[in-house]
């Protein structure tokens, strides 16, 4: 069965227009909880209350306010907020291309799949050209009245679109406060650590990692649901090894 | 410096490096409050019991999971009891090539900084930076923050350890439901399209891109502040697909080459 698209539009590069459909690529599978009233187990509702009138406010009486000073707001109507979205509409124009592998992981924000729209041949061409060149197209994308910087790249038989963070939204390493004291690790220690890195090297296999905590929480809920008493166990702290070289040597020995 | 979100130790074989987790993102968005239009008062969100229709304080709120239609209430203490025993540790389980990790797995970005200034801590931290920085390898490990377990990728960036939380495999959807392309493009078409891409290629430099949305939103706020009228632009029309793909490609190539 075909998935439901969340946005339909056009990717352009030069004069080539590629109709596309956007699909959700990721799900958060953490165990979700809802708020209930402890006394009677009834669902909690979040209501919008005007504290001046002490009355609930229907959604159509709500506007957005930007606080300019304490308690003073600049109020924007819904279509005034839309003005910031710009006039890009439903077009993602790929203005330039970069080496897809050169974009540092810190810049990736949300991910979507891009599927073919009406002109499947144009889609096949863009897909193949991106795959062959190993490049990602960089453009701007307007979604829910907000504009994003995006990267579009080939992913298997389809394409993936990633919204990107802007440079000023990323904290640089030079902004960190890392102590300068102490002596440098010796070359022997660096070599040993390097050996340990090598001994633990494997191919990345995402399937090898399961969310064991999610399973444990679901199990807890099931036991609680059956009326079982839950044992509140104590946590333990790891010890910090002081002798770096000895710890490395012991680790290497254990890895063999 | 940024607030510490988690502290514990990064465990590498038998070496433990006390570390703190701080965010690698800076929130520069304009944030809005909900305002009651009539009297310009900020709206408050209050909790009400749906059965009794009375306001409920935070202390009276419990957290429940819907287990096949049955509400099961779970306390924070009970949740804590199923956290992995070494919950204050990021255990490095393997090293992988960073290039092998698909960006679809990346979630949030953080920094790991040494906790404190003790000689042993700083030296162990630097050792990891040096040993990992020599290769393009990234460490995979897990840790628990608040009520969620994370798979995390730790690697060297700017001379420090950067941590990216990762989605689990079952949180990344398969692509089989996504419609893919039509007939295979001809070699000539692909060569032309790749030529266009190469002409338009540049080094990835994040500094080149400004957040135009943020800038426009600021303009809207400023205009409103000065009581000026705000124009909402008409969105541009959707372009229609080219009749002749090859011709569109050739014209594009001519155009980008003449720039």
Would you kindly provide a written description of the structure presented here, covering whatever features stand out?
The complex is a heterodimer of chains A (256) and B (259). Chain A is of the alpha+beta class. Chain A has a domain at 7-27 and 84-168: Ku70, Chain: A, Domain 2. Chain A has helices spanning 78-82, 120-133, 187-199, 212-225, 244-255; strands at 7-13, 16-24, 34-37, 44-50, 55-56, 62-69, 72-76, 91-99, 108-116, 135-143, 146-155, 158-164. With 259 residues, chain B is α+β, with helices and mostly antiparallel strands. Among the domains of chain B are: 4-28 and 82-171, Beta Barrel (Ku70, Chain: A, Domain 2); 187-234 and 242-257, no CATH class. Chain B is 24% helix and 33% strand. In chain B, the strands form three sheets. Chain B has a seven-stranded mixed beta barrel with strand order 1-2-9-12-11-10-8. In chain B, helix 3 (187-199) packs parallel to helix 5 (245-257). The longest helix of chain B has 15 residues, at 119-133. The two termini of chain B are 45 Å apart. The mean pLDDT of chain B is 90. At the A-B interface, strand 1, strand 2, strand 3, strand 4 and strand 6 of A face strand 1, strand 2, strand 3, strand 4 and strand 5 of B.
Distinctive features:
heterodimer, A: 256 residues, alpha+beta, Ku70, Chain: A, Domain 2, seven-stranded mixed barrel, two-stranded antiparallel ribbon, 5 helices, 12 strands, extended, B: 259 residues, two-stranded antiparallel sheet, 24% helix
Fold topology:
The complex is a heterodimer of chains A (256) and B (259).
Chain A (H helix, E strand, L loop, with lengths): L6 E7 L2 E9 L9 E4 L6 E7 L4 E2 L5 E8 L2 E5 L1 H5 L8 E9 L8 E9 L3 H14 L1 E9 L2 E10 L2 E7 L22 H13 L12 H14 L18 H12 L1
Helix pairs in contact in A: 3-5
Chain B lengths: L3 E9 L2 E9 L9 E4 L4 E2 L1 E6 L11 E7 L2 E5 L1 H6 L7 E9 L8 E9 L4 H15 L3 E9 L2 E10 L2 E7 L20 H13 L12 H14 L19 H13 L2
């Amino acid at each position: 069965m075909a998935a439901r698209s969340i946005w339909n539009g056009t990717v352009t590069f030069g004069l080539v227009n590629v109709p596309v459909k956007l699909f959700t690529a990721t799900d958060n599978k953490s165990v979700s909880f809802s708020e209930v009233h402890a006394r009677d187990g009834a669902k909690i509702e979040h209501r919008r209350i005007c504290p001046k009138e002490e009355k609930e406010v229907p959604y159509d009486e709500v506007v957005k306010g930007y606080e300019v000073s304490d308690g003073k707001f600049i109020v924007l109507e819904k279509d005034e907020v839309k003005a910031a979205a710009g006039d890009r509409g439903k077009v993602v124009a790929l203005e330039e291309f970069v080496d897809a592998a050169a974009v540092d992981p810190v810049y990736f924000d949300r991910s979507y799949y891009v599927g073919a729209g009406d002109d499947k041949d144009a889609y096949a061409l863009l897909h193949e050209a991106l795959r062959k060149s190993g490049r990602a197209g960089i453009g701007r994308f307007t979604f829910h009245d907000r504009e994003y910087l995006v990267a579009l790249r080939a992913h298997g038989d389809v394409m993936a679109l990633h919204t990107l963070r802007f440079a000023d939204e990323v904290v640089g390493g030079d902004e960190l406060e890392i102590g300068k004291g102490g002596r440098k690790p010796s070359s022997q220690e660096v070599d040993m650590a390097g050996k340990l890195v090598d001994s633990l090297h494997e191919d990345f296999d995402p399937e090898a990692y399961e969310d064991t905590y999610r399973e444990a929480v679901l199990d807890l809920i099931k036991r609680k649901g059956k009326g079982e008493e839950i044992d509140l166990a104590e946590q333990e702290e790891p010890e910090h090894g002081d002798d770096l070289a000895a710890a490395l040597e012991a680790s290497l020995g254990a890895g063999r | 410096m940024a607030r510490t979100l988690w502290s514990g130790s990064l465990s590498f074989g038998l070496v433990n490096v006390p570390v703190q987790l701080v965010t690698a993102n800076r929130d520069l968005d304009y944030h809005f409050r909900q305002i009651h239009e009539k009297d310009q008062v900020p709206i408050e969100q209050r909790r009400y019991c749906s059965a009794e229709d009375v306001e409920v304080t935070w202390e009276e709120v419990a957290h429940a999971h819907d287990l096949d239609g049955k509400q099961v209430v779970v306390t924070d203490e009970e949740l804590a009891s199923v956290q992995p025993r070494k919950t204050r540790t990021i255990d490095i389980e393997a090293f992988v090539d960073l290039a092998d990790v698909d960006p679809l797995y990346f979630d949030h970005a953080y920094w790991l900084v040494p906790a404190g200034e003790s000689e042993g801590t700083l030296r162990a931290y630097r050792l990891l930076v040096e040993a990992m920085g020599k290769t393009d390898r990234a460490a995979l490990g897990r840790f628990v923050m608040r009520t969620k377990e994370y798979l995390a990728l730790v690697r060297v960036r700017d001379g420090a350890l950067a941590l990216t939380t990762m989605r689990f495999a079952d949180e990344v959807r398969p692509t089989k439901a996504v419609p893919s392309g039509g007939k295979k493009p001809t070699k000539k078409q692909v060569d032309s399209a790749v030529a266009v891409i190469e002409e338009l290629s540049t080094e990835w430099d994040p500094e080149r891109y400004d957040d135009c949305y943020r800038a426009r939103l600021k303009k809207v706020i400023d205009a409103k502040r000065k009581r000026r009228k705000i124009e909402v632009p008409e969105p541009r029309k959707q372009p229609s697909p080219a009749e002749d793909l090859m011709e569109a490609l050739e014209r594009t190539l001519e155009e980008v080459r003449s720039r």
